[in-house]
Amino acid sequence: MPKNRNTFSSLTAWRRRALSGAFHRCRRWVQETGAITAARPGGLRFRKIGEGTRLAFPQGTVFGEPWIELGAHCIIGEQVTLTAGLMPGLDLGSDTVLTLGDGVVLGRGSHVVADTTVTIGSDTYCGPYVYITSTNHSYDDPGQPVGKQWPRMEPVTIGPGCWIGTGAVILPGATLGRNVVVAAGAVVRGEVPDHAVVAGAPARVVRSWDAEKGWQPPLRTPAPIPIPAGVTPEQLLAVAELEES
After folding, report:
1. Which of 17, 164, 185, 206 makes an SS bond possible with 126, Cβ 3.0 to 4.6 Å?
2. 39-95 pLDDT, tens per residue?
3. Which of 170, 163, 176, 103 is nearest to 133 (CA)?
4. pTM above threshold 0.90
5. For residues 107 and 67, what is the distance between their CA atoms, to the nearest angstrom?
6. What are the residues facing 157 on neighbouring strands?
7. Beta-carbon-side half-sphere exposure of residue 11 (alpha carbons within 13 Å)
8. 124 and 101 in contact (C-beta within 8 Å)?
9. Would you say 47 and 85 are in contact if contact means Cβ atoms under 8 Å apart?
């Protein structure tokens, strides 16, 4: 009897391994096949989608694509929302509403909601669950539910080379300069200068770069190891994509 039980257990374990392997192969096939690229746009018709750009499967809510431009070599993680306009089916005119520069990375579950102009500069990296919006609810009339009052819209500009941490919120009217670091969970409004680090809700500048003095206050950690010679931007983006998978 013990021998039969061991044989049965071995067969069960083998079937589970086989099913697990088949499931994960199928999952990888679905992810690859369902990804959106310039060569395989699926049902999405962006105004522009650059070479090497990829929207991972499954995609989040996407509409207003004729007013969305995606640069080259962008990485859009799973369940990322990209919208132009208040709702699908609107005619937004001749100008682009939402622009992503080359090499932009949007982490899993992020939202970019562009009811008016939103521009994200090249090589800006966003962690998971970042929320960028050009629209906010108004509450001027105390007698009306906030959700029924017409929203306010202000353009958002994020400069090139920024890093936006997990769960950060970029509010309407925000203007971020070049190489800005936004701490995880920060809520950003207003103008942020080049080479600044902001944190908090509402976010404030906690560190900035001075051409003569360097970072003020000084960094508490040693400088990172430089990127090895010969490493291309495409290889760095591939690493970022692996981190998102």
Report:
1. 164
2. 888 889 999 999 999 999 999 999 999 999 999 999 999 999 999 998 898 899 999
3. 170
4. no
5. 22
6. 119, 175
7. 6
8. yes
9. no
Residues 110 and 129 sit within 8 Å (Cβ to Cβ): yes
The tokens describing 108, both together, are: 């899993």
Q: Under 8 Å CB-to-CB from 196, ≥6 apart: which residues?
A: 177, 180, 181, 205, 207, 208, 209
DSSP lists the bridge partners of residue 207 as 197
CB count within 10 Å of CB 108 equals 20
Q: Cα 211–216–221 angle (5° rounding)?
A: 110
Which residues, 6+ apart, have CB-to-CB distance to 118 below 8 Å? Answer: 97, 98, 99, 112, 132, 133, 134, 155, 156, 157
The catalytic site residues sit at 137
Question: CA-CA distance, 43 to 226, in Å (whole number)?
Answer: 41
pLDDT tens track for 110-156: 999 999 999 999 999 999 999 999 999 999 999 999 989 999 999 99
